[in-house]
Specification:
Its main location: cytoplasm. With about 425 residues, this protein is of the alpha/beta class. The chain contains 14 helices and 17 strands. The two termini are about 25 Å apart. The structure holds 4'-deoxy-4'-aminopyridoxal-5'-phosphate.
Length: about 425
């Protein structure tokens, strides 16, 4: 495959943009480096790169693109918004329309506020929880990613319930000390953390269905227990649904699982591909936020008409009957095909799948927390990723990320993808292609 134009663009980018990219994972560090492919056109489930190679896309821009690239309904909405001016700094009626649409879809949202990214949304829920409870500490779960703000970019030390250490230079140790990290799906570690720090905990932050060390579902009853124990300790429960809102159902993971948080952070899909974030929750908690309350949060771009219009249009596509059934059906085809192929070559894999999102782990052991995901074979994943890319399948360049299907994917895409999977497994094992 000729990728000469991508190569020269990346070399040029490295002269001007730090690391050549505007978000680190795009530099393929998760798969041992290489030249990132520069795409020039997305249409439905497909990409064309700058060297005119064609790809089936499962990156979905790390989640937001659930209706396929350049969906005509969303594109029209964005064009229309652009023709009337993309940014006013005054309220617009679109904000009301969208807020009502989100509230109708997710019952735990009495009040919402739009921001510009998932990072902003999560960061603000923590501030609001601190304002509401008058406490400082938070509990989070190891391996969950909640954006790049100081407080959540903190890793666990060793042991079941540990005070955090900064995961990035530039985060003061004192900030990390306000974060307690426990393993996902481990209720006794969570209880221990509460026993030790319970009366200092403002909020418990969790991805209700994890998307950041692969797709990992909570064990039966885990989230309900998190809710009950957190509330007993006087802490708020915050769901980070930046990946999960509108991913598995028209609504959020909380509805699928039948548990309600006090606050929810969202992003990605709800912007239809334009920058967005949103947070919301119980009215008495949200009323902590300025201009009603003492917790300050603002944004020049927040609620801008283009993001609102794209988000509304995206939800209009998703609310069509059959959307999530389609994603689930294709997801199941992909899962079965990968598993069958792997077993025919004697390769140990786990496919963690929910609906139209899945993660392929190279391991023989179930993955239910971050440690399990860490212990999967990264080198095998890197070879798999590079081989799939060379065969025209664009995946996320990390063993921890999900493959995202879109409403634009068709059975033909899945068949082509499975053909590439089979060839890749043949190459990885040196066996004959089935
Ligand atoms: N929370 C979760 C669960 C995420 O997956 C992400 C992004 N991958 C974020 C927050 C941060 O969102 P953004 O990149 O829009 O700031």
């Amino acid at each position: 495959m000729n990728i000469e134009t991508s190569k020269s663009l990346f070399q040029e980018a490295e002269q001007h943009i730090v690391g050549g990219v505007n978000s680190p994972s795009r530099a393929y560090k998760g798969v041992g480096g290489g030249t990132p492919i520069y795409m020039k056109k997305g249409e439905g489930s497909r990409f064309i790169d700058v060297d005119d190679n064609k790809y089936i896309d499962y990156l979905g821009a790390y989640g937001p693109i659930i209706t396929g690239h350049a969906h005509p309904h969303i594109t029209d909405a964005i064009k229309k918004a652009a023709e009337s001016g993309v940014l006013y700094g005054t309220p617009t009626s679109l904000e009301n329309v969208f807020a009502k649409k989100l509230k109708n879809a997710i019952p735990s949202l009495d009040k919402v506020r739009f921001v510009n990214s998932g990072t902003e949304a999560v960061m603000t829920t923590i501030r609001v929880a601190r304002a509401y409870t008058g406490r400082n500490k938070i509990i989070k779960f190891a391996g969950c990613y909640h954006g790049h703000s100081d407080l959540v970019l903190v890793a666990a030390g060793s042991g079941p319930a540990t005070l955090g250490t900064p995961d990035s230079a530039g985060i003061p140790a004192a900030i990390a000390e306000d974060v307690i990290t426990v393993p996902f799906n481990d209720i006794s570690s969570f209880q221990k953390a509460l026993e030790q720090y319970g009366d200092e905990i403002a909020g418990v932050l969790v991805e209700p269905i994890v998307g950041n060390f692969g797709i990992v579902e909570p064990k039966e009853g885990f989230l309900q227990q998190v809710n009950d124990f957190a509330h007993e300790a006087g802490a708020l429960v915050i769901y980070d649904e930046v990946i999960t809102a509108f991913r598995f159902t028209y609504g959020s993971a909380q509805q699928l699982l039948g548990v309600e948080p006090d606050m929810t952070a969202m992003g990605k899909i709800i912007g239809g591909g334009l920058p967005i974030g949103a947070y919301g929750g119980r009215a008495d908690i949200m009323e902590q936020v300025a201009p009603l309350g003492p917790a300050y949060q603002a944004g020049t771009m927040s609620g801008n008409p283009a993001s609102m219009a794209a988000g509304i249009a995206c939800l209009e596509v998703l609310e069509q009957p059959g959307t999530y059934e389609h994603l689930d059906r294709l997801g199941a085809l992909l899962e079965d095909g990968i598993k069958n192929s792997a077993s025919s070559y004697g390769i140990d894999v786990q496919v963690n799948r929910l609906g139209g999102a899945l993660t392929l782990f190279f391991t023989d052991k179930e993955v239910e927390n971050y440690k399990d995901a860490e212990n999967t074979d990264g080198e095998k994943f890197a070879s798999f990723f590079k081989s799939m890319l060379s065969k025209g399948v664009n995946l996320a360049p990390s063993k921890y990320e999900a493959w995202f299907l879109t409403t634009a994917h068709r059975e033909e895409d899945i068949h082509k993808t499975l053909e590439a999977v089979d060839q890749t497994f043949a190459e990885m094992t040196g066996k004959n292609h089935n």
